[in-house]
Amino acid sequence: MSESAPAASAAEHHVSMVQTPPTSFWGILSRLGPGLIIAGSIVGSGELIATTSTGGKAGFTLLWLIIIGCVIKVFVQIEFGRYAIVTGKTTMEGLNDLPGPRSARFGNWILWYWALMFLASLAQLGGIVGGVGQALAISAPLTQAGRDYNAYREAVTQLDVATKELELRRSQANVSSETILGLESRVARWRTARAKFTKEVLPAKDDRLWACVLTVVTAFLLVLGRYRLLEAATTILVAGFTLVTVVNVVLLQMHPTWHMTWQQLWHGLSFQLPQSSDGNRSGAIFAALATFGIIGVGTNELLAYPYFCVEKGYARFTGPRDKSESWAARARGWLRVMRVDAWCSMVIYTFATVAFFILGASILHPIGLDAKGPEMIRTLAIMYEPIFGAYAPALFLVGAFAVLFSTFFVANAGHARVCADVVRVVSGGASSQATFARWVRRFSGLLPFICLFMYLVFGEPRRLIFISGILQNLMLPMLAGAALYFRYRRCDDRVRPSLVWDVCLWTSAAGMLLVALWAGTDASRNLFEFLQNLGK
Hints:
2 domains, Hydantoin permease, two-stranded antiparallel ribbon, 2 strands, 536 residues
């Protein structure tokens, strides 16, 4: 279904689109897609920025929380997909059906919180387009000030890394004198490069200029774009950089300085919390809880997934629900395809998430580098240099651009669909496909510029991403509760899941509630400390 498809009656639409679900392995594989689009949105700010930052702050300690954050939400994702296939209704229509306080004009309570979380999500995407701008400002600076700043920061960053690696190697046993001499020479070389600058060079504005260019390009592509372009582009971009990252982690295990030990791996899976030398662990925990909200299938991805299931055809191919066995058979078949799609995407983004976390814990944490501010992308590129050497900067910058731009593109596409549906739901009536498509195009053209505005006004990409992560974290138990409501109040008995599935769904909901309470408590404490400091 393209966004520009002409309107048709619901009956004509469903009759023409009903299809028998595939049953063979290759047949099911050929119908996958929505999960890969969601993975394209996931492997970006959650993995490349938030996850590596968490690894850099906490080391391997919170690996267990990262893995749980990827796996636990897929049960709610599938339940949302089941609701769309069984009822033919959209996500926001279903959420507006939940019991509780409501307004005749503005929907119910969960839509109110969604509006708050949505604004934070746009700020998160502002941070992402800022990250893409940083990558392009490093690889293709637009001004002389940008080129001067790149040379200065490259010398400062490389000197810090070389000095720390020399310290680490000197502390290890059985290190050859040739290795030490080589590192000393490297330190001296970068110290000389740093000495050429008599004073600190201030950041240039190239990243903001590039962010403006990318926003215009994104809005143009979204307004004219179609589903298949979205699916193909995100699949290629995500797969390429994810493969490079996984290869990087594997080869890193043969590096004498940065490899991961079995002791570190076990420590990361032992359900412990980070503890810094000065007894302050709040920064690492805050980063981890914010990361939990956006890694794997985050709040926005849970909301957007059913829309992509509709566009891929799972719900339309099933047809409107009736009492016939043919409908039940189609529903079970397309639910099977949807489950395979969701679990395959989960495997992809879990591998990617763990790989990014290991890179941050193995390299950024020992060096003490913090990927934030205008140096976020340059700092993250350090993780690829031990393996790829001189090729690392170019390789990483291409990958970072691909993944972050993919995230910016896909997330705005999902937001446009959700917003268009919210307009329809709160207006209190059904609308034609043509009307919905017009609203999608309007939001597709508008939302990227709002994201850009957030970045230009507030800056600091990582801060924007973490704030959004906390607010998304708080909404996760609401969506888990909605999934339980869909399961027991809106599910057709002919396609109801097994008892084992119900246990997993309840466990998932309980886990999201516990983490949200933890995140809310930690965020409140951080806010209280911030306000106290303002008063001093």
